[in-house]
Amino acid sequence: LQVAGSIAGYIVPGDLLDALAREYARTGDLEQAYTVSLRAISARETTHSHDATNRAIAMQVRHQTETAQAEGEYHQQLAASEARRAEVLQQTTITLERLSAIGREITAHLDQPAVFDALNRHVHGLLNATALAIYLTQPDQITLRCAFAIEGGVLIRAGDIRIDDPNAYSARCARERNEVLLNFSPEERLINLIPGTLHCLSKLYAPLMLGERLLGVMTIQSTQANAYAERERLIFRTLCAYGAIALDNAQAYQQLQQAQTQLVAREKLAALGSLVAGVAHELNTPIGNSLLLAEGLQIQTDGIDQKMNQSALTFTDLKTFLADTRDSSVLILRGLTSAADLVNSFKQVAVDRTTAQRRVFDLQQTSHEIIATLMNRIRHSSHAISLDIPDGISMTSYPGPYGQVLSNFVNNALLHAFDGRTGGHMLLSATNDVPGRVRVQFRDDGNGISEANLSRIFDPFFTTKIGQGGNGLGLSISFNIVTSLLNGQISATSKPGQGTVFTLDLPLIAPVVNN
């Protein structure tokens, strides 16, 4: 007991004190036995209290441990959930960025085949698509025409489908103007509307809508079951929206090209008609003079014949007849030669205008022939033109388109430069200072062009004479001819009241253009 008492915090066990109490009682020391028994009771109570406290502390520690463990698991799950959410958001962001880039690419095309190719490439890059088909609404609004269909990388042919066809899912999609999703089980027996194609277990149809207007239907199909969940459907809807915009732009651009082609064709026909009228007027004078001289010569010939038959022909009559015949013949030959030259020029210019044939020609001679066909209109407008082109500049190029450019310059000067004026002058000149190239200039002393309009004169349909004979295509056509067909450059300089100068920088040998 003395040793136990020297140990701080040590409690003598109650069992040991009970044993000691029994020993005191056996020896007859009951008082001491009683005292030790009380210590035993106290020791048990103290020990019991400590045990209870320890158990309580242990329970508290266990509870705190379990709570901490639960909180740790919760935070772990929350972290995992946040990680998954962040991953989904990142994937969504990447998908949206990719779709945005895809949309810019798709809508940048202005022809249908390029749009189809882009859609096919990106559909297969983003979705599980064994087959892709695009149907376009026809002008009758009752037919869907398969404009593009591919399965397993191989193009397939599909016929037209009526929108009221009850068996065609594409027609149903067009009628309802809503998405159609079909999932089949491998055991189902499917009706295949296109013979020879695969049996697809997942089919997704979406209308190609632009506002309230139905452009067609696009479908993707997969041999895998349940291939299109909400994410895939969202991506497909986005691609359909981009495709609708691109196809509408392509249709509008095609219509614009057709309209431009028609306008250009009309412009060419009008120019050729004006050329014919001008040449016909130019031929009237020499041919008319020749006819008058021929008629006079015929009358003189009949008179000489009559006098000779009557034996009344004198030497003076014969001498006068011969002199008049010689003069008339010279005048007739001159007039007919002029008419023949004009006809030859017209024939060559007309052929060049209609065929755009590449050939070798002399720049001076061809320019003279072109201007000759325009002289009637120039003189009729009380203006003049002169040429300053050296002889011997040989070109291998397209004289017809070159002539059309010159005609447009002349017409532009007559319509704009000399508006409200008479006595205007034009000059067509050329220099061959740079080897392999020729510099052609057409200048007028007319009204000039304002700085605001000078930068727009080569734009299609730009004109300051709307409804007054100008359609805005002449200089635009000239720009396209010079830069594309003749492989040259064209520029214009002008100041109001100081005339205008058009400059052509052309190669002597133009490249061959395949029509």
Overall structural class, as computed from helix and strand content, comes to: alpha+beta
Helix % is 55-70%
**Structure annotation, total helices:** 12
C-alpha termini separation: 124 Å
Shape assignment: elongated
Uncertain residue ranges: none
Order of helices and strands: HHHHEEEEHEEEHHEHHEEHEEHHEE
SSE layout:
Blueprint: H1 2-5, H2 14-26, H3 30-108, H4 112-126, E1 131-137, E2 143-151, E3 154-155, E4 161-162, H5 169-176, E5 180-183, E6 202-210, E7 213-222, H6 230-309, H7 315-355, E8 359-362, H8 363-372, H9 375-380, E9 384-388, E10 394-397, H10 399-417, E11 425-431, E12 437-444, H11 451-454, H12 474-485, E13 489-494, E14 500-507
Parallel strand pairs: 9-11
Antiparallel strand pairs: 1-2, 1-7, 2-3, 2-4, 5-6, 6-7, 8-10, 11-12, 12-14, 13-14
Helix pairs in contact: 2-3, 3-4, 3-6, 4-6, 6-7, 7-8, 7-10, 8-10, 10-12
Tell me about this structure.
Strand 2 and strand 3 form a beta hairpin. With 515 residues, the protein is an alpha+beta fold. The protein is elongated. The strands form 3 sheets. Strands 1, 2, 3, 4, 5, 6 and 7 form a 7-stranded antiparallel β-sheet that branches. The protein has a 5-stranded mixed β-sheet with strand order 9-11-12-14-13. The N and C termini lie far apart (124 Å). It contains 12 helices and 14 strands.
Brief overview:
The chain is of the alpha+beta class and 515 residues long. The chain is built from twelve helices and 14 strands.
Considering the chains and any ligands shown, give keywords for the structure.
single chain, 515 residues, 57% helix, alpha+beta, seven-stranded antiparallel sheet
